[in-house]
Write a structure and sequence with these properties.
- By secondary structure, the chain is α/β, with parallel strands linked by helices.
- Helix content is about 40%, strand content about 20%.
- The chain has 16 helices and ten strands.
- Strands 1, 2, 3, 4, 5, 6, 7, 8, 9 and 10 form a ten-stranded mixed sheet that branches.
- Strand 1, helix 3 and strand 2 form a beta-alpha-beta unit.
- The two termini are about 30 Å apart.
- The N terminus is likely disordered.
Length: about 350
């Protein structure tokens, strides 16, 4: 999952608002056979799988990628009265309440929803969103660094604040990045409402480095990624995903026998991604067909090696690379959407004041 800064969002609000006003037009016959998907930059699907959907349904899919998940959600909220598309994919449980409270989606019960695991159905009473995938935000470590330094990798949130890991960790800004926010929520779930700030004071004193987004953290600062080595990254600990080690193996020029990176499973926070039928969508019928497609076994089994997330549909097979190089966390931290909604903005404000100033 790629994650880009949200700083530019405010700059573009005026332009977005202007483009959204007064542009409503009668939908043509061609429009009715086009489904427009709005998503974050990490949306991906195999060409043959998407072509199969288009052939079976007669719809043509148009994709609009809108930056990081947070940025895409904010833009979608701004344009909800005259949306850019019909379906939105990529709002996760850390931002779900913001989308729902702003009336971004209209209800739809997807065909095949009964095969989606109950823990992922966070809006099961109203069906405004449909679960599509899950992943675990976790600290990844550079195996070679820790072997060379005869140092055991950290296993928990608490370990990261220990002296032996001083100046080793890079994380993303919780205000501008979904994994950064997930890591903050994970620490709040671990240490509680009253103690997470004290934990971050320890991390700051221990030299944690904060950058805007995942791409910078993983590809430029982290020593364990292949791109990180090229960029001169010198931090052997990074906030990323449990599925990052399989990606390192799959995309290596010469496939290694073992992944060069590992996961500190005691630092994980469970992230669930959803799709929804946008309010005022021009093609709601096509949007519903596409949402059905997202929870089909065909798409669910294609998804892991394209977006490096795990399927939510029961019985969907996971690629061998995932089970061999990067299993999902067995006991990730979680947090109820209501609690995230009640605390997220204040926690991010407190975190910013505490860590960045």
């Amino acid at each position: 999952m790629q994650n880009k800064t949200l700083v530019a969002v405010a700059v573009g609000l005026g332009l977005i608002g202007l483009s959204a006003c007064g542009s409503t037009h009668a939908k043509s016959a061609a429009d009715s056979k086009t489904v427009t998907l709005v998503s974050h930059d990490s949306w991906a699907v195999s060409k043959n799988v998407l072509a199969d959907f288009e052939k079976k349904t007669g719809y043509k899919v148009k994709v609009l990628k809108d930056g990081d998940a947070g940025q895409a959600v904010n833009k979608a909220i701004l344009t909800k009265d005259n949306p850019q598309g019909d379906v939105f994919f990529g709002v996760d449980n850390t931002l779900l309440s913001r989308a729902l409270d702003n009336g971004l989606f209209q209800p739809y019960t997807a065909k095949g929803l009964d095969k989606v695991g109950a823990p992922y159905q966070l809006d099961k009473d109203k069906h405004r969103v449909t679960p599509v995938d899950y992943g675990d935000i976790c600290v990844n470590y550079d195996k070679k660094y820790f072997a060379d330094h005869h140092l055991t990798p950290p296993q928990s949130f608490a370990d990261l604040a220990k002296p032996q890991y001083k100046n080793l960790l890079v994380t993303e800004n919780a205000a501008t990045s979904s994994p950064g926010l997930g890591f903050l929520l994970g620490s709040a779930a671990q240490f509680g409402d009253d103690n997470w700030q004290g934990y971050w004071k320890k991390l700051k004193a221990n030299g944690v480095k904060v950058v805007d987004g995942w791409e910078q953290a993983y590809y430029q600062e982290f020593s364990g990624s292949s791109e990180g080595k090229k960029a001169g990254g010198d931090r052997p600990l990074v906030v990323s995903y449990a599925s990052s080690p399989p990606a390192e193996v799959i995309y290596a020029k010469k496939r290694p026998s073992t992944a060069p990176t590992g996961v500190s499973y005691g630092t994980c926070f469970r992230q669930i991604e959803f799709a929804g039928l946008l309010s005022n969508a021009q093609n709601p019928k096509g949007a519903k067909a596409f949402i059905d497609f997202l929870v089909s076994k065909e798409f669910q089994e294609d998804m892991p090696l394209n977006m490096f997330v795990y399927p939510v549909v029961q019985g969907a097979k996971v690629p061998a690379e995932f089970t061999e190089y990067g299993k999902a966390a067995q006991h990730p931290e979680t947090m109820a959407p209501g609690k995230i909604a009640a605390n997220r903005d204040q926690w991010v404000k407190s975190w910013t004041s505490l860590v960045l100033k």
